[in-house]
Amino acid sequence: ARIAQYYSCSDACLILGLVYIDRVLKSRPQLVVSPLSVHRLLAVGIMLAAKFHDDVYYSNAHYGKVAGLSLKELNKLEEAFLGMLKWRLIVQPREYEM
Predict the structure, then answer these.
(1) What is the pLDDT of residues 44-72, one digit of tens each?
(2) pLDDT confidence tier of residue 5, bands split at 50, 70 and 90
(3) Are 17 and 76 in contact (CB under 8 A)?
(4) What is the pTM of this model?
(5) CB atoms near residue 17 (< 10 Å)
(6) What mean pLDDT, rounded, does the chain reach?
(7) What is the secondary structure of 42-95 as a DSSP string?
(8) Is 91:84 a contact under the CB 8 Å cutoff?
(9) Which of 14, 4, 1, 3 is nearest to 64 (CA)?
(10) At how many degrees (to 10) do helices 71-85 and 35-53 cross?
(11) Which of 9, 45, 50, 64 could pair with 57 as two cysteines, CB 3.0-4.6 Å apart?
(12) Is residue 31 within 8 Å of 25, Cβ to Cβ?
């Protein structure tokens, strides 16, 4: 709830973030979703969606502060997440609507 409120992104970004997380988990079945990892996955997935989709977005420092992550950790997560997505951030309507 905190991320959704203070990231100030569109509702579409919340869905896009989940699509990105789904893609990562399908491509990396060995990743374990735990209470610690789900928070990080949501933080970085929704942040990337806001940066890619919304006209207005914030700095990584802002997103990190909201999510309770250091800037260094969030930057590393962003780099790793983009790599796992192979930089594919475009979501087709059929995938968005699933």
Answers:
(1) 999 999 999 998 889 999 999 999 999 99
(2) confident
(3) no
(4) 0.92
(5) 25
(6) 93
(7) HHHHHHHHHHHH-S----HHHHHHHHT--HHHHHHHHHHHHHHHTT-----HHH
(8) no
(9) 3
(10) 80
(11) 50
(12) yes
